[in-house]
Amino acid sequence: MSSPRLGASLPNPAATDDGNEMRFCSTCAFSAACLDQGYDKAALGDLHCLVEHVGPYHEGDVIFREGDPFTAIAAVRAGTVKTYVIDNHGDEHVLGFFLPGEVIGLNAIHPARYPCNAVAMDTVALCRFSFPQMALLATRMPGLQHQLFRLLSEDIGKAALVAGDYSADERVSAFLLTVSRRLAARGLSGRRFHLSMTRSDIGNYLRLAPETVSRVLRRLQNDGILAVERRELEILDLDLLTALAASVLRE
Amino acid sequence: MSSPRLGASLPNPAATDDGNEMRFCSTCAFSAACLDQGYDKAALGDLHCLVEHVGPYHEGDVIFREGDPFTAIAAVRAGTVKTYVIDNHGDEHVLGFFLPGEVIGLNAIHPARYPCNAVAMDTVALCRFSFPQMALLATRMPGLQHQLFRLLSEDIGKAALVAGDYSADERVSAFLLTVSRRLAARGLSGRRFHLSMTRSDIGNYLRLAPETVSRVLRRLQNDGILAVERRELEILDLDLLTALAASVLRE
DNA sequence: CGCGATTTTGATACTCATCAACGGAAGTGG
DNA sequence: CCACTTCCGTTGATGAGTATCAAAATCGCG
């Protein structure tokens, strides 16, 4: 049994997990952010009322499709989500990968439709937030409004990794390093992790041929920076990797 | 006499233009958007109270600098603004060009500091909006909040032009076409216009060598698509230009 | 096992960056 | 008015980096 598209609101809250986990869901970006700032319990209650835990989605499941009417954004609780578009030649362009704690759907607010497709790369669980309800609530909770502004502002300019005219080595290094850091930021291991995407997906995202990704990984392994075995990856020399990625990440 | 940085709020409203123009400033994105949606006059008054017309800035004037504390966003009323960063090798990376009607500073909300530099490419006039005041007002004006969300959401994914692995011809064509359309959207001529930036700036933005930009322009001229004379540009065959840009712009 | 997808490896081609040199426009100072 | 300078743009020759094509190796899975 697969979960419904994100666009479809769940008919009743019975489909959510038990309320206890929901109340203390540590991967829910908004709840956490608001808790951090010590907002009043009533407002938090309101916020939790518009959250739905959805999933699990399984590998290949569609979370939303380009053109679907925009109804909700979602924080990834577990798993990896890939967003992409199909160009007029029928070729896929990967726009991004979203790891636990990250928010999908923010770029859909303006056209009021999702401007890309989102699929699960593995087993994915989401926190779904009805956007109209959240925007309404934000008018009563300046802190929530600010968190939304923050999330949106953060995402502007996130394309630096794929935008610059960097070498293949720099791009792949920067990609691996950001994945590592994003995982670590959610309490997962940033030193040793599993890549849920293929070489083709990585290459597509970084605008490199999959063969090039493969060759770069081999180089990094030969240089003792990484240990790579299929999709299992271990960072052996973080300093060297960081140095390689430095120009991309502006550090 | 040059205008102050954007970060510095003007001490008194006497520095703004006459109130009459301000009230009907057609290039002010927010005022226009709110007027479109028929909000009440009182709220509009509030909105106009937090607008300051600043400028003129002259070519090379700094509008804000990377690291400046974030206090305001601004809509370009006239002229062209370039945003850029300096990497750790001392090289400039152009992030974008902002034409009349477009909003600068949106990516500064999160870190609460401007993450890049902004300079005037020619004579520039701005509408400055104090962001704290505007965010506060947005809690009372859902329409304004929505416009802000819309602006922010729009900017996410605007990097497609520089992100894709497109050919130099496609990139330059897409760049010229978007400039043309953005000018036309503000009532300016999209068929014949002046490029306020150098070949180096364009190349830097598109991640191409300035020589390559020059060569592409010559090719497009030889093919009868453009007439180029220094920075004066005329589009002769819009269909061909659009076709060249199609894959970049996903049309 | 045997099929398909993924990954790797090798050989070649092509786009674009780089280097170098020149031409031209605008501005400066005598 | 005329050198002189400087920045910008153009043009040509060369080379580096990566895509592409082709094929073998490996893994997952029915």
From TrEMBL, chains A, B:
SUPFAM superfamilies: cAMP-binding domain-like (SSF51206), Winged helix' DNA-binding domain (SSF46785). Residues 166-239 form the HTH crp-type domain. One of its GO terms (molecular function) is DNA binding. GO terms for cellular component: cytosol. Its main location: cytoplasm. It comes from the Bacteria. Residues 57-109 form the Cyclic nucleotide-binding domain. This is CRP-like protein Clp. The lineage of its organism: Bacteria, Pseudomonadati, Pseudomonadota, Gammaproteobacteria, Lysobacterales.
